[in-house]
Amino acid sequence: MKKVFGIVKDGVVTNANTGEVITHLFRDIMIQKAEENGQALAFDTETDRARRIEVSEIEQDTTIEVPKQEVNVKADPVLALIQNAASIRPATLEMTDLKWKYLVRSALRGKNIMMVGPAGCGKTEAAKALPAATDRPFFYFNLGATQDPRATLIGNTHFKGGETAFDQSAFVKAIQTENAVILLDELSRAHPEAWNILMTVLDEGQRYLRLDEDINAPTIYVASGVSFIATANIGTEYTSTRVLDRALMDRFEIIEVDILSKERESALLAKRFPKLEAGLVEAVADIADLTRKEWRSEEGKLTTMVSTRMTVRVCDLLADGFNLEEAADVAILPFFDQSGGADSERTFVKQIIQKHMATADSDIFNTGNVDDMSVANFVMANPF
Q1: Which of 88, 198, 265, 298 could form a disulfide with 285 if both were Cys (CB 3.0 to 4.6 A apart)?
Q2: Among 153, 156, 151, 144, CA closest to 209
């Protein structure tokens, strides 16, 4: 378990070990209560959950500094590209330098990579950006939408001209393409049969695909330099996903895709939508940030959050002339449960959105079975 510990002073949270400002990781109300009670804050980087703790519970960082190793990039062009990975990262991709460097290195070395994180955080986009940045052949397979794994990954057998014929799948062609980047999207939603077929393909000591279980069946070997990238949503809120087999996961190097801070979200949206007013972009980023803090908190009211995919949709609508109220109503609210009336998740998110509306003193979402008085009572009972 990896935790970041924060010290609260004058509403600002700093990392107890490094002094870095980490206020963005916590909800305002949690920061306020911690300061009032003389407490500290802890953020679990593996579960993205935050909670208040006693100052005595802070664990000190005892990391020993290791001398840096000099790398001779002139002798190896691959090393040179790895060390300068940041220079080939797309401007519209919000990913830390370290994780992008790790992604580039893994692909150039023919490794298997699994990108994990909540839905809509940019896993597939980052995977698609990699082959373009490194100038490598790219093949895409959505395993979450595959109903017949054998046909998708191996091929189809059929009768042709009175004889049995076999048509190889596009996947068979892909794995025979040198230096290819092959995206296995939504691996956590794939049928277990697909996992079984991929076991030998992904194993570094085997790297082959047998076209049939018969001992005499042709065997296709994975070409040199081929890198497989898988994306997976791992968590209890993804009801259609399956728990990934440990043996399958061990065949991948794991990259956790970050949930963006308010500042990084705003920067990403500003790059993608340069014609939108800065105030609108800031409002969308702030709405997303507040829901993420609430979702992360152990005391939070939300079971999901506004993802980067949602904020991009909202900005798309704003660019097409929708106002913030209309865009949020169709692109954000349907993802939040409305059961519970005034205490529902949807009403809570409406309250967050109302803070950014020019008509915040009126009920701009007078729809469904939540009346004006219910929203007003909710706002009074749940102040920020």
Answers
A1: 265
A2: 153
- Tokens representing residue 200 in the block: 């030998």
Rounded Cα distance, 307 and 288, in Å: 7
Residue with tokens 């709405």: 287
Cα 293 to Cα 41: distance, rounded to the nearest angstrom: 13
Q: For residue 196, what are its two tokens? A: 């079984």
pLDDT at residue 39 tops 50: yes
Does the pLDDT value for residue 369 go beyond 80?
no
Question: CA 30 → CA 14, 25, 110, 291, 299, distances in Å?
Answer: 14, 10, 44, 14, 9
Sheet of strand 253-256, all strands in order from the earlier edge strand to the far edge: 138-142, 181-185, 227-232, 113-116, 253-256
Share of the chain residues as helix, strand and coil, in percent rounded to the nearest 5: 40, 15, 40
Give pLDDT tens digits for 256-302.
Answer: 888 888 999 999 999 999 999 999 999 999 999 999 999 888 888 89
Query: What mean pLDDT do residues 112-127 have?
Result: 86
Mean pLDDT across 129-157: 89
The DSSP result for 19-86, as a single string, is --B-GGGS-HHHHHHHHHTT-EEEEETTTTEEEEE-GGGPPP--PPP-PPPP--GGG-HHHHHHHTGG
**227-269 residue pLDDT tens:** 999 998 764 444 344 567 788 888 998 888 888 889 999 999 9
pTM, rounded to two decimals: 0.67
What average pLDDT does range 169-198 have in this prediction? 92
Bridge pairing between strands 163-168 and 219-221:
unpaired
Average pLDDT over every residue of 55-66: 66
Residue 5, classed as helix, strand or coil, is: strand
3-state secondary structure of 128: helix
**What structural domains does the chain harbor?**
3-56 (no CATH), 77-256 (3.40.50.300), 262-381 (no CATH)
In whole angstroms, what is the distance from residue 49 CA to residue 26 CA? Answer: 9
Return the H-helix or E-strand segment holding 372: helix 372-381
